[in-house]
Design goal:
Helix content: 25-40%
Number of strands: 14
Number of domains: 2
Strand order of the largest sheet: 2-9-8-7-6-3-4-5
Structural class: alpha/beta
Largest sheet: 8 strands, mixed
Length: 397
């Protein structure tokens, strides 16, 4: 009798044409400029190695303290992190997880029944479908629309999806890949809509430390949202550019009665796994105190690369870069070009640069590509020059 596997993991296993071409080129030793690079530890950033590693040497790490919500002193450090943003989050409203993917799984277990739907934005990050499958739910996409120079929630599409089996709304603010933040008027409208449907909100805010200059007032964390049951996600993967250290958090808020029950249930879920590393929790207390040093280093990189990208596209008339409020990504659009996957294949084969085709992120049309703003500046600049050349523009030095 053949072995059987869960339908939860019945995903296509083959590699797409773009991945196969890239693998083939790298196997032949060809040099490719990776404009999809999202791993900060591979981006040539100047980490203070001694300071980072010394924080892991605490003798307290030799004592196992299996606290479901995480060590109090670590949650107090996260609380102080929010206080630095002018947001009051008591440690009792925080729960630590081993990354935001685990946080999503905990919240899907808390908020949904098998067969329910979670509502996610489009354009948006493709990870949600996999997380939903693993938790026996599915995704439905509400649209973000671009108008008057910014991306906004299409509330008509969102309201049409809400119902008894779709009462969990996911925000990503700043969004990946649009770089947009939910505005205060949108949050008011979202709260009214969710309250009317007894819906909860999961707000992924991992990029909130990378708001571009002049955009600081555009971001409002749902860690301070009392109107409906809300869960703000953050973590050191982005805030400290340390994805390998695997520490994230859920900041819960909402009406007091339902919030109390939600936190109680979350604690039981976390107690079942106890997955957060003790050494990382102790080290994070020191690391979070140094957070501005980390975030300023990354913010300088991504804003500098974004400025160069916009300038090159404008000079070459090769396309347009959509405005970014925050995050690590940029969207490039050129109306009338071929389908985005063919465009990406051409860039890789002819110009030796790797980009994301827009369909990865459910773009509204097929003439988008997505770039990471993290690569080392000289590589990024050369890649952008090649991009503009391929798009039919004339580069001027």
């Amino acid at each position: 009798m053949p072995y059987s596997f869960s339908r939860r993991t019945d995903w296509p296993s083959g590699e797409n044409e773009l991945a196969l071409l890239l693998k083939s080129m790298l196997s032949r030793g060809e040099q490719v400029i990776d404009l999809t690079l999202a791993n900060p530890t591979r981006a040539g950033l100047a980490y203070d190695q001694e300071r980072l590693l010394s924080a892991l040497a605490s003798a307290d790490s030799l004592v196992y303290a299996p606290l479901p919500c995480g060590l109090l002193r670590t949650r107090e450090a996260v609380s102080a992190y929010y206080a630095g943003k002018g947001i009051t989050v008591a440690p009792e409203r925080l729960l630590l997880t081993a990354g935001t993917s685990e946080a999503y799984s905990f919240l899907f277990r808390l908020l949904t029944e098998p067969g329910d739907k979670v509502l996610v934005p489009a354009p948006g990050y493709p990870l949600f479908s996999f997380l939903a499958d693993l938790n026996d739910v599915s995704v439905e996409h509400y649209r973000l629309r671009f108008e008057e120079g910014r991306w906004r929630i299409d509330f008509e599409s969102l309201e049409g999806l809400l119902g008894p089996h779709a009462r969990t709304v996911i925000l990503v603010s700043p969004n990946n890949p649009t770089g947009s933040c939910i505005s205060r008027d949108e949050l008011l409208q979202l709260n009214r809509l969710c309250a009317a449907h007894s819906a909860s909100i999961i707000s992924d805010e991992v990029f909130c430390d990378y708001l571009f200059p002049g955009q600081e007032a555009s971001f409002g964390s749902l860690a301070g949202n009392e109107e409906v049951l809300s869960f703000a996600l953050g973590g050191i993967s982005k805030a400290l550019a340390l994805p390998q250290m695997k520490l994230a958090w859920i900041a819960a808020n909402g009406p007091r009665d339902v919030l109390t029950e939600a936190l109680s249930r979350l604690e039981v879920i976390a107690d079942t796994y106890l997955s957060v590393s003790t050494p990382v929790q102790h080290a994070a207390v020191k690391w979070l105190a140094d957070m501005p040093v980390f975030s300023s280093m990354v913010l300088e990189r991504v804003t500098g690369n974004y400025t160069f990208l916009c300038g090159e596209l404008a000079r070459s008339k090769a396309g347009e870069c959509f405005p970014v409020q925050g995050g690590w990504y940029a969207m490039v659009h050129r109306e009338g070009l071929c389908a985005d996957e063919n465009w990406a294949l051409g860039l890789l084969a002819q110009e030796r640069i790797s980009v994301h085709p827009g369909y990865f992120f459910d773009m509204p049309s097929e003439d988008f590509i997505v770039l990471s703003l993290l690569p080392e500046p000289s590589c990024f600049q050369e890649g952008v020059r090649r991009l503009c050349r391929r798009m039919g523009g004339v580069h001027r030095s």
